[in-house]
Amino acid sequence: MQAPRIAFSRRAKFSRLNFVMLCLLSVELNALGGWIVQMFGLPLFLDSIGTIFSAALGGFLPGIVVGYASNMITSLNGDPTNAYYSTVNALIAVCAAWFANRGYFKRITTIAGSILAFSLIGGALGSLITLLLSGFTFGDGMSSPYAMMVASTYHLPPAAAQFFTDVAIDLGDKTITVIIALLLLHLIPADLREKLHYEGWQQTPISKEQRKGFQRSQCRVISLRAKLLLILMAALILIAVSATFTSIVEYHDTSVADHTKLGRGVAGLASSVIPADQVDQFLAEGENAPGYQEVEEQLYRILHSSPDIQYIYVYRIEQDGCHVVFDLDTEETEGSEPGEVIPFDEDFKAYLPDLFAGKEIEPVISHGSYGWLLTVYHPVYDENGVCQCYAAADISMYTLRSNEIIFLTKVASIFLGFFILIFALGMWLAEYNITIPINTMAATAGSFAYNTQDAQADAVQAIEDLNIHTGDEIENLYKAMNKTTKDMVDYIADVQHKTETISKMQNGLILVLADLVESRDKCTGDHIRKTAAYTDIILREMRKEGVYADQITDTFMQDVVNSAPLHDIGKIQVPDALLNKPGKLTDEEFAMMKYHTTAGSEVLDSAIATLSSDDAGYLKEARNLAHYHHEKWNGTGYPCGLKGEEIPLSARIMAVADVFDALVSQRSYKKPFTIEKALDIIREGSGSHFDPVVANAFLNAEEEVRKVAETNMALEASKQPS
Hints:
The chain has 722 residues and is α+β, with helices and mostly antiparallel strands.
């Protein structure tokens, strides 16, 4: 079956300047919406009007560019947190383009559905980003005061109040945003909307239905489009994971280094306020020792200097444990009393030899009963260089975890928006530069037909009409295909010309051969040409009537008509005297005459034996005609006595043509019958002598039959001596 031809689109060509202008205008719309909100203090955002407008008008690529660029620009102009919401705007662009492509912005119900979808993206996803950035408490944005009010009124946790407030505000925001965007779209003339829909054709554009057909087409394993999508997605995910992991590790190491630096500074500062020569007295007398409280106050000031400092304490390390010199009270726990002995922590046992020796040790990160802490010990030496105790600072590592989550959220938010942008751009480029050109070439090639000169010209024109100009290997493939098509059409034309020449030579040789045989029979005249003409009439009528449709193909008709002149070739073995006897044949002579059917099949069998089965098609029908054209429908014919459909169809057709021509032709032993009388005889013989279907087709084509018969009768009459 011939494949459907490519349906080209009449869409106006989109220029790159239009794309830039659309993006700039849409970014300005987003900025204008944000400015109006700030100017009037509205509880809205209005920062995605341009995103929805550009996506609905130009497609998903301009929309994503506008959404991502808008957030990046505002983040550089004083509000860096906007960069973390670029993903939200990019997803809104994708949805807006999808909705517009399916006509969702043309009906009230689907417009309402699109508003709800935008609200869930902007409200729910945006709120989740806010909560992650704020440590699941109230954020710093415009919605935070309202979230606090909701939390106090309905006794909700901060995270829940922030989430529901963001979704509610965004529902109103996206309702106004969509209404404004649709009004702007409505103001743009239809022809301009066509021009502003961005499609990067690298060929003659095709229709939307054709593109959908390509996407629905089945491949044996997986489509090229899906492969490119998977490769691009895998590459982006791999880059994202690698970049994020590297960033987190680097951030973690930097944060630990900063915490360690803080711990060293705090421990060093604490050790500097400890009078080494009074440590024994502090251990013995505690708060009653002179100067103890003054030192403790200084240590408290150091403790409160940074929220990351969890504990400050001073221990003397001895074999039986840690002897408390100072242990500052905190809001969560009370410190140990001076002189109290605290067992060694498991995390420090590896460092005990150095601690007993009064040496410095590396900072220790532990997960113990006091929490996740980074502990720094700094020795306090007396004037003789003897370590009297250690001043220790515990730096909380929980803020590190919280900061890492916030950092991960920032990285993921920015990268996800960038991911959507790059993915959309990659798929857009791949579709217009690879998959669509390849699919159109395949579809065009699949629709080629070469059976006529017009079809061959159409095949060449169809591939030329694609006009693929990707400027890469795809274009090289297209040019090669174009050249191959032209060369193939030229070759086919040459082959067809030679085939026609050979066919004419073949038919000419058949007629020459038949004429040689017929020239021996002085009675038959132009019998071979007339029977061929009647055979052609019968075949065309039978095709028109739809009888024996499975057998009467173009090839069958051509073979039967071309080989019809050979039906009496067996007469070459019948003596001339017998062929030209003016009177009635004796039984013995008639038996010899009947042998011409068998003789004809033997002659043609010899010819068939020299050819392959594929090349002997017309000769097989010639053999059937020669051997069986005197068989009768009721089985009383010769040479085999076949009956009904046992007789080959070509022979049943020839039987009618042969008898009719014999009836209306002049013979040495009879006068010609009138056409009416001959037709009556054919009609009477239907169902007995002739196949009734074939006879009926012959009689139905009476007008054409008469033309042939009358023409030949006139020719015969002109040849008679006056």
